[in-house]
Design a protein that fits this description.
alpha/beta, 2 domains, 22 strands
Length: about 500
């Protein structure tokens, strides 16, 4: 059943009818992992509203439209999406949208870095197929992650489009609310679709760990966006960094602006695109970065705790398989680390059989078995773990255990997992703030880990989201592109006006 929130009596006829839909994931084509439909944990009907706190009853926004949520799924980053999963989710969405017609608007909430087997530009394909159901006159507002990719097809089928302005994405909800607010304002004012949309491809492809808005030049680049906005003349503007771990033609930076004044829209987009290009050589990793060997030497020499090392190459929140064992192998065979006596926590490695064995044995038992490298064994085989089980956490979705071998405590999970919060560690009896060395499969630190760190290094480790982009076998991204082609000539950064979605009727 579809729920029309905020509609009763004659009010329903006066308010715009707005549907909500979207599927979101960033998926690496450099990983052997695949993502199935279950990974998206799709919600339908009124469950969709749980994604959006700004739709609470007292927010005022809920009363401004007849809201018609269909399907919204958000998967943890991972490998390429199976074609079967994509088609199933799209078909379910289209079928539900048919039941919402007629519509005045659509809030299309995506990530923008989904890769699908045998299909380029899946978000553009998805929205094109949505248009075939809802029509080209419906006003569509698209919300994205700044690490998404915007093809001309996605740009044309979106009337309003925006993305996050912070990395880490502390403004995710704020950005989604902006997309909805812009949609409501254009419908309520009767102005409808903006008259002009400027799209500028910027031949830059960088990892998020080099484009964090915590530091320059990303901080000032994104801070410049509000300064180019001008009411209805320039309603909004956005900068997409794109996603470097998918080898597809659409993967490159993009700047867009839209509004009712053609000259102002072009000027805004061109100003941001030139800024982006001019600072390209200033982007650097958000923290000191080196290879694992040196990272361990510095951690061993430090008296600060916790000394956090980011195991970046297999970061599951960027699309890594999450089960690469290379770093764990290196830790266990590092003689100085073993002799130092320094406490080490490693988070984490999946190993369903090991977890099952540990749960059966119980806390205090010695358990031996293998974990990891079931999905991605290109860099190292499964790791042999032998030690005392210090914690067991049984959960309906993902059981976890801790095995301590010498001075190294390894979190082993039934399914891959990301560790971003202190409570995830303390629930397992671990004290991350007191650990000498904390190794986490992550790139730049999320806020809670960032605040916890006493010192921090990012390690260039192998995996499906290798941060050393020059090691990746790109074949399909547009060339030349920075930094793969560092001496390329300056590109044409003039505004390209994208046809309105109405033009699809012609």
């Amino acid at each position: 059943m579809l729920f029309c929130i905020g509609c009763s009596g004659n009010t329903q006829k006066e308010l715009p009818r707005i549907a909500i839909a979207g599927i979101a994931i960033e998926s690496s084509t450099f990983s052997p992992a695949v993502s199935n439909e279950e990974a998206f944990r799709a919600r339908t009907g009124d469950e969709v509203f749980t994604y959006y706190p700004f739709f609470e009853a007292d927010s005022g926004m809920i009363d401004r439209a007849v809201w018609l949520p269909t399907l919204r799924g958000h998967a943890m980053p991972g490998g390429i999406v199976t074609r079967e999963a994509y088609e199933s989710l799209v078909t379910k969405t289209l079928d539900m949208l048919k039941g919402t017609l007629p519509l005045d608007g659509l809030f299309f909430d995506i990530h923008g870095a989904m890769s699908v087997q045998g299909l380029d530009d899946p978000e553009g394909d998805f929205l094109t197929r949505i248009r075939e159901v809802i029509g080209n006159d419906v006003l569509v507002s698209t919300s994205m992650d700044l690490h998404g990719s915007v093809s001309p097809r996605l740009a044309q089928n979106s009337d309003l489009i925006t993305c996050y302005r912070l990395a880490p994405h502390e403004d995710a909800i704020e950005s989604k609310k902006r997309a909805v607010t812009n949609l409501l304002n254009r419908l309520e004012s009767g102005k409808g679709k903006p008259a002009y949309k400027a799209w500028i491809p910027v031949p830059i492809l960088l990892p998020g760990e080099k484009t964090s808005t915590r530091i320059e030049p990303g901080k000032s680049l994104y801070a410049a966006i509000p300064g180019v906005l001008d009411g209805n003349n320039v309603i909004d503007a956005a900068i997409w960094m794109s996603y470097p771990w998918a080898d597809e033609p659409r993967n490159h930076g993009v700047v867009m602006a839209y509004g009712d004044d053609k000259e102002a829209v072009a000027k805004a987009a061109e100003k941001l695109a030139r800024h982006f290009w001019d600072v390209r050589k200033e982007f650097d990793f958000v923290a000191p970065t080196t290879y694992l060997g040196e990272a361990l030497e510095k951690a061993l020499a430090s008296d600060k705790k916790p000394f956090i090392i980011s195991d970046m190459g297999d970061n599951p929140t960027a699309g890594g398989a999450g089960d690469v064992t290379w770093t764990l192998h290196e830790l266990f065979k590092h003689p100085a680390l073993q002799k130092s006596g320094k406490s080490v926590i490693y988070a984490s490695i999946p190993g369903a059989e090991f977890v099952k064995k540990a749960i059966e044995a119980g806390v205090g038992a010695e358990v031996e078995g293998t974990a990891g490298a079931e999905v991605d064994n290109r860099f190292a085989p499964p790791v042999q773990l032998k030690g005392i089980i210090t914690a067991v956490k049984e959960d309906s979705t993902n059981n976890e255990v801790v095995v301590k071998s010498g001075n190294i405590s390894v979190i082993v999970t039934e399914k891959r997992n990301a560790y971003h919060y202190e409570k995830q560690f303390t629930d397992l009896g671990l004290k991350p703030r007191e650990a000498d060395i904390l190794v986490v499969k992550i790139g730049y630190l999320v806020p809670e880990l960032y605040d916890m760190r006493a010192d921090w290094l990012m390690a260039l480790t192998p995996g499906g989201v290798d941060q050393d982009l020059l090691r990746l076998p790109y074949k399909r991204v547009p060339r030349p592109i920075f930094p793969l082609d560092p001496d390329m000539v300056d590109p044409d950064l003039s505004a390209r006006f994208i046809p309105l979605s109405n033009d699809l009727n012609e």
